[in-house]
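tl;dr need the bound structure. longer version: we got a ligand (fe (ii) ion) that a collaborator sent over and nobodys looked at where it sits. i said id run it. heres the input, straight from their email, havent touched it
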Amino acid sequence: MEGFGCGFQRLNMLRAEPGYEVVQLLVGNMQNFSYIISTEGICAVVDPSFGGRIISGEVRRRKLTVEYILSTHSHFDHNHDNEILVREFGAKVCAHSRSPIDKAVAIEEGDSLKLGGIQIRVFATPGHTPDSVCYVVPGGIFTGDTLFVGTCGRADLPGSDPKSLFRSLKRLSALQPDTIIYPGHDYGATKTSTIEHEKMENPALQQRSENDFEQFVLG
Ligand SMILES: [Fe+2]
C-alpha cells in the first residue's frame, strides 16, 4: 500500500459536548478523516485510515490509551492502519457483524459502547456498503461514507444499495437539528456540519422518494 500512507495533513480540535473531545485528522491522499474521541485518559479512534502512526503519536502525546477502533465500514481506505493501533494499544476493533474486516467486537443496530462516561450508540446505516454504521455520541454523529458535507456516499459500488442508503439518510435527518456531523472524507466546503445545515444545503437529504434518490445517486 505504498503511496497511500502519506500521513498526517491536518489536525483540528473540534467543538464537542462537555465530557469529551474530538480531534479530526486529515490523512492519506484520499481525503480521509480519522477522529480521536477522548475522555478521562482513554480514547476511541474512528477509522484510523492511513493515519496509524500519526494517531499513535498524538495519543501518546496526550497520554491516552486507545480502547476502541470504531470502524464505519469495510473499505480499505478507512481500515488500512487498524492493525497498528491494535498492536500498540491493544485496541478492540468494533465493526458491524456483517463486516469482513478483522474485529474484536461485532456490533449491531442499537448496540451501545461505553467510553468512560460517554455512551456511543450504533446506528446501522446500510447503503454505501451493507456493513456501514454511524456512531452517535452526545451532540454528534460520525457518519463514515454514509453522509458527507454537501453530498452522500457512493451507491454504485459492489454491495451498494441506493434504496437502503435513502432510508439510512432519512434516519440521520431525524436526529436533533444541532447534531454535529463528523464525516469520513473531506469532500465538503467545511470540515464538519450539522444535521440542520445539511437538510438545508445537501441535495442527498432533499430527495423525496427512493426512486428520486436512486436517480440522484446513480445519475
Ligand atoms: Fe467507503
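gonna send this back to them w/ a short note. Helices lie at 52-61, 76-79, 82-89, 162-173, 195-201, 210-218.
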